[in-house]
Amino acid sequence: MQQKEIQQQLPPQTTPQQMKTIIYIENLDQGISEDYLYRKFKEVGEIQSLKITKDKTTQKSKGQAFITFAHPDSAEEARKKFNNQVFIRNVIRVKPYFNYHNADKKANIFINNLPEDADILELEQEFSRYGTVQSVDVHRDILGKQLNYGYVQFEKKEDADNLIKRVMNHPITHKGKLLKLEQFKAQSERKVESSSIYLRAIAKPLPQKYWDQEKVVRAIEYGWSLIIKDYFQKHGTQVKDCFVKIDQHTRQPWSMISFENSEQAKDNLDICEQQRKHPCINSGAHHALELINKHGPPVNSDASEAFSIAEITQAFKEMAQDHNDTFKGESENFFYNMVYSKHLNPDDRLILVQNIKEEVTKDQIQDFLSKFGKVIRLTIRKTKNPRFQVQQCFVHYQTMEDSKRARSEIYDENNAEISKIKKEIFKDGHVMMNILLSKTMRKEFKEVKKQSQSIFQNPGGRQLLQPPFGGNFPVMPPQMPFPPGGQGMRQMPPRGPRAGPFPMMRTQVPRHQMMNKQPIQPPMSKVVQPQSFIQEFSDYTLVQSRMEEFLKIPLADQRNVLGNLLFQKVFDVVKDKEATKKVVGMLIDPSQFEIGDILNMFEDNQELQTYIDDGLSLIKEETQK
């Protein structure tokens, strides 16, 4: 077969039998061409297709390739002959092709404690004793070095279950190392255990006169580590490691302590929660100097001493006489937490507070939030869309109890003092407070909402409402997720002052405004007719430039104006006037969208398109009934 006759694409749907004829190659040198691979791999059998994957923009090789042989034996021989061989400059890796998207995730086993020289073919042969193995993969770092973990994918869940049961009584070893096997879990399902804790800001800032002496700083860090280890040794707890460093910005020491197991770490974290400090950091400079004398100074990487006892003795003696002795462990902002992946584990003490008025200062919000507990850190930020939620802040409470109290008492409408302050600090007196999820969890939560909550579904067979404009089609009030803000939206061209496509809506007051409802005052002067608002804000650019004025008009009129502006945008997609009316009616439904959410529709094309698609789906379903 000539190279030019080889097909350049894999079959769109590959059967299990076809997968046995395909190999996947990675870590290819940039200079390797498809001709080069063809000449090399045709030695082991007839090739049906070959493809080097390339970047769509640069058309440069990604260092990966797929080769399909005529027979499975050829693919197996290619793996044995070429895996871990040097092609030009790089050591390539040859693996069986495997479509992970079609695999049964419950038939996947996580392998831990692999040796550095783990052999994939030997592992595959070993695991094949327990069932049909589709793939064995050992993970590597960015330099290509094998790590100590990987995965084995079985064809059937039963085979994976049987392997897990068997290794409980008959462990598997590979090249002298006992393998640890467990059922694969998705990232969101993993229970992340940690045997280490962070103790932050364990003492007051180090005085400048000591901070300027490099060897004294090194001695203080070393002294702290000896004090902590000595405490746990006296209390019968084995510490695997203790690292102490003085933060260069705050000049306060922090420590990471590693225990034998996660239970010990949790127990010591509970002590911090209950006492708001840890007894291991309550000592003195005199005791620190005694321990340094006992154990001797630490050594540098070149085996030289980091400092001599004589160089640090005077500073430690002065410190011992000072009532601000750093080794007393006194701190106003002591903080603690487990050492774990911040991408997976949220901290319930870190809270996002939103809807803060623009003129409110950091001191005001800190004084208010401090009423509920000890605030360790507070950061004020402008939101991405400051026209709606002018400011937001991230507040870190010292303990879980402080955080729980804040999240409970701040919503107590019976507390007159709290309610009064909320009206001064938050827009409409409405607090928005949530635990800040990790980045990974926010992404997963967004996907869950997207999959489980169609924005136009009928929750619990609720009565369908009529759209706020002409037409007899029943429109359902949807359960809406919060639409994310976006940028880069094409602005609508001015359409000039004209009437909207639907009559005016009746006023509906949001729930949080009803709670703080004031007596209705009689009109003091000429009432502005709703129609004039549509003429006044005849283009979205006018709404943007005069946002402060726009937000002062009645809520129902705000919705009418935005509905009028949305009409053309939706019509450009739907191409049907009646259907457009119905979709727009859904989008400005006051029971589902806040004004800020509707404004976001003008700035996020993708989100608006999703709403339009779901609205059209609902219309189609209702028409077919």
Automatic annotation (TrEMBL):
Limits of the PABC domain: 542-624
RRM domain: residues covered: 21-99, 107-186, 349-428
Keyword Lyase (UniProt): no
Superkingdom as given in the UniProt entry: Eukaryota
Stored Pfam families: MLLE, RRM_1
InterPro entries xref list: PABP_HYD_C (IPR002004), RRM_dom (IPR000504)
Keywords tagged on the record: RNA-binding
Residues making up the signal peptide according to the UniProt record: none
GO-annotated molecular function: RNA binding
Coiled coil: none
Identification of the protein by name: Polyadenylate-binding protein
